[in-house]
Structure formats: C-alpha cells, structure tokens
TrEMBL record:
The active site is at 257. The keyword Oxidoreductase applies. Residues 22-485 form the Aldehyde dehydrogenase domain. The keyword Transcription regulation does not apply. It comes from Planococcus maitriensis. Belongs to the aldehyde dehydrogenase family. InterPro entries: Ald_DH/histidinol_DH (IPR016161), Ald_DH_C (IPR016163), Ald_DH_CS_CYS (IPR016160), Ald_DH_CS_GLU (IPR029510), Ald_DH_N (IPR016162), Aldehyde_DH_dom (IPR015590). It holds the Pfam family Aldedh. This is 5-carboxymethyl-2-hydroxymuconate semialdehyde dehydrogenase. Its EC number is 1.2.1.8. Keywords: NAD, Oxidoreductase. One of its GO terms (molecular function) is betaine-aldehyde dehydrogenase (NAD+) activity.
Amino acid sequence: MTTVEANVKEVQHFIDGGYAASSDNQTFEVKNPATQEVIAVVAEATEEDVEKVCKAARLAFDSGPWRTMTVAERCAKIRRMADIILERKEEIARLEALDVGKPYSHAFTAEVPRAAHNLKFFADFVEQRGGETYPMEDAFLNYTRYEPVGVAGLITPWNAPFMLTTWKLGPALAAGNTIVIKPAEMTPLSVSLLGEIAKEAGIPDGVVNVVHGKGSVVGTAVTKNTDVDLISFTGSTATGKAIMRNGADSLKKFSFELGGKAANIVFEDADLEKAIPVSIQAAFLNSGQVCLAGSRILVQRSILDTFIEKFKAAAEALVVGDPQAEETKMGPLVSEEHFNKVKSYLDIAKEEGAQLVTGGSTPDLAAHIQNGYYLQPTVYVHDNPKARICQEEIFGPVVTIIPFDTEEEALQIANDTDYGLNGVVWTENLKRAHRISHGVRAGTIWVNCWFVRDLRAPFGGFKKSGIGREGGHHSLEFFTEAKNICIALN
Ligand SMILES: NC(=O)C1=CN([C@@H]2O[C@H](COP(=O)(O)OP(=O)(O)OC[C@H]3O[C@@H](n4cnc5c(N)ncnc54)[C@H](O)[C@@H]3O)[C@@H](O)[C@H]2O)C=CC1
Ligand SMILES: O=C(O)/C=C/C=C(\O)C(=O)O
C-alpha cells in the first residue's frame, strides 16, 4: 500500500509475491465512514485478473514447496506472520478504524491481537494434531493422513475484515493450501497487507494472494474459477446462496458463516449488574454490525421496567464519536448504503407500532465528523416477535426488547427466526441455564456472558446462519482431504 496524494492510499492486488495493478488500470474509491472523505483508490480486478491470481495460487499449490515442506517449517512461518501482525498492531488497528469506522481502541486491544492469535493458534493446533489408526487383526493397518485440498478462496466481510480473514487464513495455510483472498470492497485496507506480511514471514510467492473488486464481479469470478477448490465465506445469507449456485458447476466445497438475529434472554433471576453491560456490548459493539449481536433482547415481564430503565441509561451513556479517539465506544455505520438500510428500519419500527425507548436519530457530533454515517444507540420495545424489526438482520445499533412471561414462551420466541447462529441466556439457575441452552436452536449459546471465544470450539450456525463449522478440528476438516492408507502387514 502506498500514499498517492495527501492521505489517499493506493491499494493493489497481491499476486504471486508482488503488488499489481489491474490489467485495465481500473480503480474504485473507498471512503472513511466517519467523514465521507476518500481514503483510498483500490485496483478493481477484471475477470482476466482473477484468472491470473487463481492460476498463481494453483501453480504454487501444484509445484511449490508449501504443501510438501515439513509441518514444523510451515507452521514456523505462520507464527512469524502472527508476530509481524503484532509488530504492526497499531498501524493495522488505525487502518481498521479508518476503513470500517470501528473504535481504534477495540481494534487495537481485541481484534488485531485476535487476528495474530488466529494464525498462531492454527499453527500450534496442526502441529499437535494426531490421526486415526485402525489395525485389522494382525493383517492390515489403516492410518489417516490429512492433506491440503488445494486452492482456497476466502471471501470475507467488512465488519471485522482483518480478524475474520485471518480466522480462515490460519487453518487454510496451516493445512498446506494456497490462498486467494477476496476482501470486502468497502473495507480492503487492512486485508490488503496480508500478502506482504506472508512474504515477509518467508511464505513462498503465490501462496497468499489478494484480489480486490466488487463481490458481484470479482467474488463471482473467484467462486466460478476452476482452479479454486473450496470457498470459505462470511457474509450475508443472500450472498451465501449466490456463491452456492455459482460454485455448483465446479463442485466446490463450501463453508458459510452467515447472518444472525440472536435472542439475548434475560430471566427474572439474572444478575443485572452483569447482564446490562454485557447486553449493551452485544447490542452496540461495532455499531451493531456483528453477526453475533444480541439484537432481540427477551426480558421476563416481572423485571421489564427495571431492565428498560437500566438498559436505556447505559445505552445513552455510550460515547459515540470519532473512531480514532481513545474514549469512543461506538463509531459510524460502514457506508452510506448500509446507513440508509439501517435507517429504513426506523420507519419500519414506527409503522409497526414499536415503542421507542431511546435513540432513533443522529447523535451530537464534533465538527470534523458531522458528515459521518452516525446513528444513536437505538432501543425499541415491541410485544410482537413477528414484527420485521424482530425478524430481520438490521446489522446496526438498533435493538428490540421483547417481553415474555414463561420459559416456554421465551424458547418459542427465541426459535421463531430463520437464523440460528447464537443465543445468550441470563439466569442464576443452573438447571434453567441448561434447559434453555438445549432448547435454543443455534450454534453457540453463551450463558451469563457473550462473545467469549475458545478457538478449539465449533463455531457456526443452524438454519440460515450457515453451513459447516469453523474452529479447531472443524476448520481443519474443511481445509483438508482425509486420506486412508491401508497396509498389508504380512
Ligand atoms: N455474517 C456476517 O458477519 C455479515 C453479515 N452481513 C449481512 O449482510 C448484509 C449485506 O451486507 P453486504 O456487504 O452486502 O454483504 P455480502 O455478503 O454481500 O458481502 C460479503 C462479501 O461477499 C462478497 N460478495 C458479494 N456478492 C458476492 C457474490 N455474488 N459472489 C461472491 N462474493 C460476493 C463481498 O464482496 C464481500 O467480500 C448486511 O447488512 C448484514 O446483514 C454483512 C457482512 C458480514
Ligand atoms: O469470533 C469469531 O470467530 C467470529 C466472529 C464473527 C463476527 O464478529 C462477525 O461475523 O460479525
């Protein structure tokens, strides 16, 4: 990445170990969502460029040393990547704040360290991995090898671009695949560095490639490309369906982490001293642009008034402002288009008769961020769980409190959704915690906590929230082909 004029960065593809412009020199602009200023011009790939990048990854897989080098050597290079990310932590966190609009403090203390951990974790995990052996009396011995699949297409979103890309890159690389990354076009800055970081870490040319452009063109071309063997995707459910259709002809493997509309269920025996601040995080972290957001807050009617009063006060106390400022807890939405989508739900809420508790308009802002895509933390109460604001993924700082009376009713509302990524339960009753955790149809349930991540644990969604699981051996199963070798012993 270079700077072309004051503060405007030039971002190119990273192909076969070097930066490259598009074959037709086309570019697109990226804006800072806090100000609407242009912060980067980015190479926009043609279909021919996508061919080239996928071919580079193919050649690096077929004839390069990456998949044949020892696991120890490969993993040492991946760990070096993690170290370089930590050495460049401030720079990457600044880019993430600039590009996504998320608070720098969160990127610096949580997401960039997690990105480094994603790489290191899978390097360690692969080195320690065993295999299966099945002796057949004394006559034959079966043993299993886990070999890389080939070229991995990683199509990644804009809400946590660097962290979520490394979450796929770590296991894909550790397993010995070569990679084509297609970052989200709205937020390409941090991810564009991964090629050069890989090169600096000693990873051979052609193993980590990055290609930029619109999802509908470049994402589609990567998905259809016959040199690409699998697609790991995080993003919207609609795009997941398109990827599945476009990848069908080349019979790709898919792993999808898609949308969510999590129920955050607060029972009357919950410890509100913990439940309120964590529910605020679950609602407004990254301006609610988190697939795991607890955007449907189910509250038992006996504590409804107390909960609303405390939650309102905590939402109003959140510091909304410049993402680069240390004290900022919530920044803008990522783009004008997304801002308009989120704002449209304020009209829908009104039409649906939802009761506004707080928010619903633009916050007071310092002069330099007056043009940013800001919305106040917004809270509604609605007693109709079928309302659109209770059903659709808004992906913004807009949450709805839904009252309930009994456990059965809470479960019924929690499961009345197309999504099933995660759920949250607040209770001091252990038996109830288990009952509700078993009853909610979602891939992760957090009890008296939220977004606590052990990278060994399965992570992914039921229903329209995804296909497959990431994490620990689940990621490795996706990024490897299991091979059984059967040896006659006599
Ligand atoms: N699960 C999650 O973490 C995320 C969920 N979303 C949800 O999706 C909604 C829409 O956001 P979008 O930016 O439109 O998400 P998206 O799912 O379209 O974008 C994610 C990635 O997919 C790529 N892409 C788009 N169309 C493609 C196609 N046809 N083939 C291959 N790749 C393609 C994009 O370029 C980007 O890299 C959000 O409002 C939110 O509800 C968005 C981002 C992340
Ligand atoms: O912690 C993870 O591995 C994944 C987190 C996912 C998100 O933050 C997201 O997609 O919004």
